[in-house]
Amino acid sequence: MEKIQPNYLKRIFTILLLVVLTAVIYLANDILFPLILAFILAVLIRPIDSFLQNKWKFPKIISVILTLVVAVVFFLGLLFLIGMQLKEFFDDLPKVEQNITKVISDLNGWIYQHFGISNFQQEKIVKDNLMKSSMISMEYFGSLTGFLMYFVLIPIYLFLFLFYRSLLLGFLIKLVPAKSTEKMQVVVNDIKLIVRRYILGLLLEVGVVSTLTTLGLWAIGAPYSLFLGLLTGLLNLVPYVGIIIASFLSCLIALSGNPNLEQSVIGVLVVIAVVQFLDNNILMPRIVGSKVRINALASILSVIIGGSLAGIPGMFLAIPVTAILKVVFDAAPGLEPYGYLLGDELPKALFWTKKSDLKDN
Asked: pTM for the complete prediction?
């Protein structure tokens, strides 16, 4: 029997490792999601902790607590701003319901006139789809208790990542031989740089998209333009799916100010389409894409796989996790081809031998 070459053994081991990792992510996504998110946030706010310790000579425990307080205050401030807009929207909810009811009635009549589907049949279709949607929502978001647990677990994990940072780095150094210590440090620094720049790029993108959407909706006279702008910017963080949800909600809310379907919906869709065109062709390549350096095919596949494994949280974390994997693949011997596959650097020339030129062995 022919002996298996060491190269093939490495490849088989790599494939098995990827399969095991995929199974772990699928089975333990509720545990991994807050951990990964806390790790990314810890990398992002680490410079604050470093500044407090090195420049102002704060004790470690005090600097970590203050850093965590800054992060929590920023997050609560964002929630407060959104909450104020939600309050204004809920105050006008009776008017919104009245206008939407009129629109639904007109839409039902239009569907019956053009397609012959009765109101009863339309209601049945809507109810069936709502049942499916609710089941998907429960599957993706989990129970309310689990969702609230994230708000408890993530700050705890964030504190522990910051406090035990040197312990974790020391563990990584001990994983590799002494001659590879410097290479491990380079990999860790690259991961920190990519995560930090990516998240900062996303925050900048959210700000720009929210501002442009708000100004566009205000210009066409859409109600709650600030709320819809913030909502669109935040939902834009969820690749591909988020903007679809934002467009639907924006059109629905716009009907509260103008029940005329053509005037309200078309205006909102034009504004969102223009902002998305600017975002996809100018903002993303310059702000986010240049930081991550993974190609579009890898991005789309990672988002789909992340959504399949862990729902909306998996979609949100898919691209930064893929970027981290690319750094690891580029540095790990034998895994360089996978890092090349994820990258966006196209070869200037590819010499591929034609079948007719191949010689039979």
From this structure: 0.74
Pick from 43, 22, 111: nearest CA to 320? 43
CA dihedral angle for residue 107, residue 111, residue 112, residue 115, rounded to 10 degrees: 180
Amino acid, res. 151: F
Identify the bridge partners of residue 294 per DSSP, sorted by sequence position: 343
**Residue of 299, 280, 284, 283 whose CA lies nearest to 344:** 299
Distance from the Cα of residue 288 to its chain's centroid? 12
pLDDT tens digits for range 84-105: 777 777 776 676 666 666 667 7
Distance CA 121, CA 5 (A): 64
CA neighbours within 13 Å on the CB side: how many for 355? 0
What's the pLDDT tens digit per position in 208-243?
999 999 999 888 888 788 888 888 888 887 766 778
Which residue intervals of 116-143 are DSSP H helices? 119-141
159: its two tokens: 């504190």
Q: Please state the length of the chain.
A: 361
Which among 232, 171, 203, 199 is positioned nearest to 321, based on CA atoms? 199
